[in-house]
User: Fold these one by one.
Assistant:
Number 1:
Amino acid sequence: MDLIQMTRELGVAIQESDVYTGYRVAKDAADSDPRLQDLIGRFNLKKLDLSEAVQNDEKDRDRIAELNQTVRDIYNEIMSSPLMMACNTTREELDRTLQFMQQIIVYSANGQDPMTIEEDPGCAGGDCSGCSGCGGH
């Protein structure tokens, strides 16, 4: 039994899964939306402007506040886009699946029966504070 080959096959299975496909469809839709990409471009440019204003020896507090608000406004507009929300939701679902898969592998390597391992609720939301040690973060 070649573990590396089995891992490669697992990689293929991940890419063929519904959770991965859902993420790719959502990401591709977000990446190909001109309005959303324009917002992301504007956000990045304003972040650069803000960074330069903050690093300037002669700080213009009003300009910094204005740029900071503009960056926040654009960010909120990006994050409230249905395409970006779908991309983030499907990415979180994929991440949860991958974290659980990693949990199964780590627990199995520690001697537990892989068929009886249940998802650690501390890992389900990405919050490791209640985690019993999946090693994910």
Note: The longest helix spans residues 82-109.
Number 2:
Amino acid sequence: MLQPTEATADAAQDAIVEEFAFFSDWSERYQYLIDLGKRLPAFPEEWKTEQNRLQGCQSKVWIVPELKDGHLLFAAASDSSIVSGLVYLALRVYSGRTPEIIKATTPVFVDAIGLSRHLSASRNNGFAALLAFIQHTAENA
């Protein structure tokens, strides 16, 4: 389960925007995404089931939510290195937050760093599915 590294979801988004602004082109940003994906905590093989598989992604993505002490924690993994980086970004913003904060947090970092313009259509759809899953989980927590 990914614990938050920033105090608030907004602070996490601001940090992401600041980090991506450091890179001058998208080849560097893709490499950074790959590096971020390596920061995901280990995901147990036994969790890689169809039940935990995110629908709507071309790549395989597994995600497991846990409500603990009023906060939603997420563990996730992907078979794609770039998608793993996208998963890391989403969990950095949302994992470890209360359902109310998750529901109230719009993922402004996506447009702010240009993700929607530079990802393939299938990756954009998959990332949208991931963000929708997180929101849906918060709404039903």
Note: The longest helix spans residues 121-139.
Number 3:
Amino acid sequence: MSADHETVAFRMNMHPGQAAEYKRRHDEIWPELTEALIAAGVLDYRVFLDPGTDHLLAVLTRRCDHTLAALPNTEVMKRWWAMMADIMEAGPDNVPVQVDLAPVFHLKASDRR
């Protein structure tokens, strides 16, 4: 972890048979949502699919001074979650069910020099 950013990971669950739709929606992510994520401190955000379980692994690098906790209160985030709720496990207010993942290993090439 750098002094100015950190990387976190979490798991979400997609409903079976929704992989193509999940990808399509993210291929067409709204510019205003992308802008909100970046403004909140997201530096890099990746989502990977385990097709055998329909689990989604998200890896997010964010500034240490991020404001991501405020995003659920924004109109654009609420609209996005409402749109995604039919293809993912979601809780109250359509918030995706997320399980934080604990880091257990990290190899960084620059640390070996």
Note: The chain has a mean pLDDT of 95.
Number 4:
Amino acid sequence: MNFLVEIRPMKFSWKKVIRNKYVVAIFAFLIWITFINDIDLPFILKSKAELRDMEERLEYYQKENELIKESLDDLTTNKASLEKFAREQYYMRKRNEDVFVIREKDN
């Protein structure tokens, strides 16, 4: 017995794919989740960018807070730094002393 079977490659047909109800349902679901839903892809990307920005600001403020704590500690423990701070920030002076404040003109 000689059986000759001819094997032909299957042709790909978009019509079959488009008519398949499962493929259409999956495609519709992906479109819904990506663009139409309340928490869609653009919302998620925007939220991640805002989170990154807030984390950077948090890091900046934490560093500033540490610097301020060090400055406060220095002011409360060192009398010379306290006097320097009072003279520079509040233009305080000792008796029989003149203070001249020189400011640059704003352009």
Note: Helices lie at 14-19, 21-36, 41-77, 79-90.
